[in-house]
TrEMBL record, chain A:
Subunit structure: Interacts with non-phosphorylated form of RAB8A; phosphorylation of RAB8A at 'Thr-72' disrupts this interaction. Interacts with ARMC12.
Annotated region (Disordered), positions in chain: 414-447
Molecular function GO terms recorded: GTPase activator activity
Localization, UniProt: Cytoplasm
Protein's UniProt keywords contain Cytoplasm: yes
Protein's job: Acts as a GTPase activating protein for RAB7A. Does not act on RAB4, RAB5 or RAB6.
Signal sequence segment: none
Protein name: TBC1 domain family member 15
Alphabetic keyword roster: Acetylation, Cytoplasm, GTPase activation, Phosphoprotein
Automatic annotation (TrEMBL), chain B:
Protein's name in the database: Rab-like protein 2A
Source organism of the structure: Darwinula stevensoni
Family: Belongs to the small GTPase superfamily. Rab family.
Lineage, top ranks: Eukaryota, Metazoa, Ecdysozoa, Arthropoda, Crustacea
Keyword Nucleotide-binding attributed: yes
PANTHER family associated with the record: PTHR47978
Length: 472, 210
C-alpha cells in the first residue's frame, strides 16, 4: 500500500525520477516534466494507483515531448457493463411536436436521441428518413422542401435520361456502361425476392430498383455498381415507394457507405482491424481466443460491415437498425460496436465448441435471422457506456469511438506546449545530461524514421505487457 | 515445387497468417476436406451448391458477399468425409479477401455461365489466382446453365483442354451432372489430401508445357 501520506507522494515522485533516469538517460528532464510527474504522483495518493503505473503514464507524457506518440496504453479498466433499456419507437404525434409552424425540424439533437433510443413507427419512415438521409435539411421549411424536391425530380430524370437515351448500338461500343448495367441486372434479379414488395416476375418495384441503381451509375460513374448496393437500396425503396425519393435517400446512404465499395477495400480492412482491436480491448478472453484460432482477421464480420447487417435481419428489423445507425449516435462508428456485441453474444458457443476460423465463419453465416435487433442495439450501447466510463482508456479506442478522454480518465498523452524542452532546470535527482538526439518536429526526416521502442512492463498485473511508442 | 507448396505461407491482405486447420481427422474421425468454388458473379456457384446439398433449387438466390461456407458430411468408398464447400463472391471488388479461402483447399471447382461468354474468358484469371495460391490441387471446370443454352454441350472448350482440366456440363436449375461434379471433386480432394505428391507430377507436366 502506498498510502495517503505525504511521504508516499515524495517517494513515488522520487521513484519516478530515478526510474526515468535509469531508463531514459541520456535525456534531459525538464521542469515541466517534473510538474507532470508531481501531478501524477498526487494521483497515486488520491486514486491509489501503483507508482509503476504512474511511471508508465509519465513515460507516455515524456515520450510525447520527445516526439513519440503513445499508441498502446495500459490495461483499460472497464466498469461493469450497464444494462441498457431500449425505448418505444417515435410516434407520429411526437414527430409533429418537433416541427415548427413552417415545417422546420426543431430540436434536432433531441430528435436524433429519441430515434436512437427507440427508432420510429413504420408509418413515419417515409417522411423522417428523408431528413436522416440528408435528402432534406432539417432547417428547411415545407415550402422550401417543395422547391427542393422539384429540383431533385428534374435532376433525377436528367440523369436517368442520360442512360435511357443511349441506343443499343451506342452501348455495343460503350463497355464501361454496359458492364456496369450488367452487374446491376444480375443483382436486381436476386434482391429480396421473397419480400412481397419485390415478389414475382415482371415486378414493377424490381424494375424501379434497377432504374435507380442504373441512374446511380450516372451519378457516380467511377464507383459504378458494386455487389451489395442493391441490398442497401431495397429497404429504402420499399419505404419510399417512389423512384425519385428513394434515389436521393439512397444517395445519402451511399455517402456513408461508399467507401465500403471502393476498389481497394481499404475501408473494410480498416474496419475489420478496428473491430478486432475493440474485441481485444472489451472482451480480452474472446480477443485472445480469436487470435489463437487464427481468426484475428475477423473476416466473418465482412458481410455485417459491408451492408450494415442487411442480410442478418428480416426487413422490419433492418429498417429499425438502420434508422438508429443513421442518427450517428453515440458515435458514427457505432456499427463497429454492433459487430463486437454480436460476437460477444455468441462468445460462449464459439469458445465452448472450440470453433476455429472455419466454424466461426459458418456459425456467423448461420446467425442470420436469429439475432434480436433490440437486444443487439442494447448490448452495443452497453459496450459504449462501458468504454465511456473506463479508466486507462487507450487512445486508439477513444479515436475509433470518437470519445474525448475526460480528466478523470487517464491522460496518457499529456497535452502540453512543447515550446521549450532543453535548457531548463533539472528535476531533483536527474543529472543535467546530454539532450536526446531527437528534438520534436525540427526535421522532416523525423516523420520518416519509423522506429519504435517497446518498454516491457512485467511489474504489475495492472500493467499491460507492452507499451509501444511510435516515433512521430 | 513440392517444397514450395508445403512451406507456402499464406498471408491475408492484412499481413496476418490466415491459418485454418483442416486436421488430419475431425473429432468424429472423419476425413476433412475443403473444396473451393470460384467463378464470376452470378454464374451460379451458390445455386450449384444448393442443388447438390439440399437437392433443391431456388430461382432467386441472394448474391454471396465475401464467402459462405457449407459443411456437408458424406460417405465416399466407405469412408466418412466432412466436406467444407467454400462459396466465394464473384465480383472482382472482393478479391482481396481471397487469400484466406484458398488456404488449405484440397480441390477447386471453376464455374462459368454458358450464356455469358465473358464468364468463360475470365476463367484464365481465376485459374491464375488459384494456381498462385494452390499450385497443385485438383481442379474441375463446370459450364452451368446448359438448360438455357443446350448447344453448349456440343462445344469443346480451349481453356480446360489447355490445362488438362475435366469439364462438366451442368445445370443447377434441373440438376444435370451436379452430383457427378461434386462427387468427383470431393473424391479428388480426398486423393489429394492423402497423397499430394501425385498432383505435383501433373503440375510439373503443366509447367513443362508452358
Amino acid at each position: 500500500d502506498h498510502g495517503a501520506s505525504p511521504h508516499g507522494r515524495n517517494r513515488s515522485e522520487k521513484e519516478v525520477a530515478e526510474l526515468l533516469q535509469r531508463s531514459l538517460s541520456p535525456v534531459r528532464i525538464t521542469h515541466e516534466d517534473v510538474e507532470v510527474a508531481g501531478r501524477l504522483s498526487s494521483l497515486c495518493v488520491e486514486d491509489y494507483i501503483h507508482p509503476v503505473v504512474l511511471l508508465l503514464r509519465f513515460l507516455g507524457h515524456y515520450a510525447k515531448n520527445l516526439g513519440y506518440e503513445v499508441v498502446e496504453s495500459l490495461n483499460m479498466r472497464l466498469p461493469p457493463r450497464p444494462s441498457v433499456s431500449r425505448g418505444p419507437p417515435l410516434t407520429s404525434p411526437e414527430w409533429k411536436e418537433f416541427l415548427d409552424l413552417e415545417g422546420r425540424v426543431t430540436r434536432v439533437a433531441e430528435l436524433k436521441q429519441r430515434i436512437f433510443r427507440g427508432g420510429m413507427e413504420p408509418g413515419l419512415r417515409k417522411e423522417a428518413w428523408k431528413f436522416l438521409l440528408g435528402m432534406y435539411p432539417y432547417d428547411s421549411t415545407e415550402e422550401e422542401r417543395e422547391e427542393l424536391r422539384k429540383k431533385k425530380v428534374d435532376d433525377y430524370y436528367r440523369m436517368k435520361l442520360q442512360w435511357r437515351s443511349i441506343s443499343a448500338e451506342q452501348e455495343s461500343r460503350f463497355s464501361a456502361l454496359r458492364d456496369r448495367k450488367a452487374l446491376v441486372e444480375k443483382d436486381v434479379e436476386r434482391t429480396d425476392r421473397t419480400v412481397h414488395f419485390y415478389e414475382g416476375k415482371g415486378n414493377d418495384n424490381l424494375l424501379m430498383l434497377k432504374d435507380i441503381l442504373t441512374t446511380y451509375i450516372m451519378w457516380n460513374f467511377d464507383l459504378g455498381y458494386v455487389q451489395g448496393m442493391s441490398d442497401l437500396l431495397s429497404p429504402i425503396l420499399f419505404i419510399m415507394e417512389n423512384e425519385v425519393d428513394a434515389f436521393w435517400c439512397f444517395v445519402g446512404f451511399m455517402d456513408i457507405m461508399g467507401p465500403n465499395f471502393a476498389m481497394d477495400q481499404s475501408k473494410i480492412k480498416e474496419d475489420l482491424e478496428k473491430a478486432h482491436f475493440l474485441v481485444e480491448s472489451l472482451d480480452p478472453d474472446l480477443g485472445e481466443y480469436l487470435e489463437k484460432m487464427g481468426s484475428g482477421n475477423m473476416y466473418f464480420c465482412f458481410r455485417w460491415l459491408l451492408i450494415w447487417f442487411k442480410r442478418e435481419f428480416e426487413f422490419p428489423d433492418v429498417q429499425r437498425l438502420w434508422e438508429v445507425l443513421w442518427t450517428g449516435l453515440p458515435t458514427p462508428n457505432f456499427y463497429l460496436l454492433l459487430c463486437v456485441a454480436a460476437l460477444c453474444m455468441e462468445k460462449a458457443i464459439i469458445m465452448e465448441n472450440q470453433f476455429g476460423f472455419t466454424e466461426i465463419l459458418k456459425h456467423v453465416n448461420e446467425m442470420s435471422y436469429r439475432i434480436d435487433v433490440e437486444k443487439l442495439l442494447a448490448e452495443a450501447e452497453g459496450l459504449y457506456l462501458q468504454v465511456q466510463n473506463a479508466q486507462n482508456l487507450p487512445s486508439r479506442i477513444a479515436e475509433i469511438l470518437g470519445l474525448e478522454i475526460s480528466p478523470h480518465q487517464l491522460q496518457m498523452v499529456h497535452q502540453s506546449n512543447k515550446t521549450e524542452v532543453n535548457g531548463q532546470k533539472s528535476p531533483p535527482g536527474a543529472p543535467a545530461g546530454a539532450i536526446g538526439s531527437s528534438e520534436p518536429g525540427n526535421t522532416s526526416t523525423d516523420t520518416e524514421a519509423m522506429d519504435s521502442i517497446e518498454v516491457l512492463g512485467e511489474c504489475d498485473d495492472a500493467i499491460s505487457h507492452v507499451l509501444a511508442f511510435n516515433f512521430l | 515445387m513440392a517444397a514450395q507448396q508445403n512451406n507456402e505461407e499464406i498471408r491475408d491482405s492484412l499481413g496476418e497468417k490466415a491459418e485454418l486447420d483442416y486436421d488430419e481427422k475431425t473429432k468424429a474421425g472423419e476425413l476433412a476436406v475443403k473444396v473451393i468454388c470460384l467463378g464470376d458473379s452470378a454464374v451460379g456457384k451458390s445455386k450449384l451448391l444448393e442443388r447438390f446439398l439440399v437437392d433443391g433449387y431456388k430461382p432467386q438466390q441472394l448474391s454471396t458477399y465475401a464467402l459462405t461456407l457449407y459443411r456437408h458430411r458424406m460417405t465416399i468408398s466407405d469412408e466418412s468425409v466432412l466436406v467444407d464447400f467454400w462459396d466465394t463472391a464473384g465480383q472482382e471488388r472482393f478479391q482481396s479477401m481471397h487469400a484466406s479461402y484458398y488456404h488449405q483447399g484440397h480441390a477447386c471447382i471453376l464455374v462459368f455461365d454458358a450464356t455469358r461468354k465473358i464468364t468463360y474468358k475470365n476463367l484464365t484469371t481465376w485459374y491464375k489466382e488459384l494456381r498462385h495460391h494452390r499450385p497443385s490441387i485438383p481442379c474441375f471446370c463446370a459450364v452451368n446453365k446448359i438448360d438455357v443454352n443446350e448447344e453448349v454441350t456440343q462445344r469443346s472448350f480451349n481453356f480446360p483442354a489447355k490445362y488438362d482440366i475435366p469439364i462438366y456440363y451442368v445445370s443447377a436449375a434441373n440438376g444435370t451432372n451436379v452430383v457427378k461434379l461434386f462427387t468427383d471433386a470431393v473424391e479428388a480432394a480426398i486423393r489429394y489430401k492423402k497423397n499430394p505428391s501425385d498432383f505435383n507430377d501433373i503440375i510439373l507436366e503443366e509447367l513443362e508445357r508452358t
